[in-house]
């Protein structure tokens, strides 16, 4: 990456494995996050206009690290205040904003997300919104499930999605 400004790259230990976070140092806005230690995979998920040269940091900023720690201690709303930045189509950006309104412990269906976005028969579009989300946990696409309530498809593995859903259900 040969881009002018630097971004923070850090990994936070969680009960389901490392949560790697890429954030802007100036604003502490999260550009990408995922349950992986593969930072290259995360960088590729960031819109090209938001990519920056990475440097390693031991903490992604006290606010982000504190929010993640509080989340995994049971305060599942702690991640709600963390700023995020993603770019894509207008529909995806609206979808990511709406995902931040889905309460932990109360997952919705892909069709339900489509209804919130006023996209008739848009369950597939809702699936793409979730699939293109670069900011796992902070934009909680894991809270979207099939119409029968069963979890499916999660970039970081179905086991992690199930764990997060069960954890949030027990702390909501």
Explain what you see:
The chain is built from six helices and six strands; from the N terminus they run βββαβααβααβα. With 172 residues, it is α/β, with parallel strands linked by helices. β2 and β3 form a beta hairpin. The longest helix is centred in the C-terminal third of the chain and has 13 residues, at 158-170. It is globular, with a radius of gyration of 15 Å.
**Overall radius of gyration:** 15 Å
Strand order of the largest sheet: 3-2-1-4
Tally of separate helices: 6
Give the mean pLDDT. Answer: 89
What percent of residues adopt helix (DSSP H or I)?
Answer: 25-40%
**Overall SS class:** alpha/beta
Overall 3D shape:
globular
Order of helices and strands: EEEHEHHEHHEH
Beta-strand content: 5-15%
Query: How far apart, in Å, are the first and last alpha carbons?
Result: 40 Å
| Poorly predicted regions | none
Give the strand tally. 6
The biggest sheet amounts to: 4 strands, mixed
């Amino acid at each position: 990456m040969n881009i002018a400004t630097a971004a923070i790259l850090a990994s936070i230990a969680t009960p389901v494995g490392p949560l790697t976070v890429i954030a802007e140092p100036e604003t502490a806005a999260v550009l990408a996050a995922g349950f992986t230690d593969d930072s290259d995979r995360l960088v590729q998920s960031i819109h090209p206009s938001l990519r920056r040269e990475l440097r390693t940091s031991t903490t992604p900023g006290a606010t982000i690290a504190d929010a993640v720690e509080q989340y995994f201690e049971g305060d599942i709303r702690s991640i709600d205040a963390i700023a995020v930045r993603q770019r894509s189509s207008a529909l995806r950006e609206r979808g990511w904003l709406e995902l931040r309104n889905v309460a932990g412990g109360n997952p919705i269906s892909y069709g339900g997300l489509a209804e919130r976005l006023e996209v008739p028969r848009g369950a597939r579009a809702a699936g793409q919104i979730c699939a293109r989300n670069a900011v796992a946990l902070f934009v909680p696409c894991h809270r979207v499930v099939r119409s029968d309530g069963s979890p499916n498809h999660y970039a970081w593995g179905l086991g992690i999605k199930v764990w997060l859903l069960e954890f949030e259900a027990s702390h909501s």
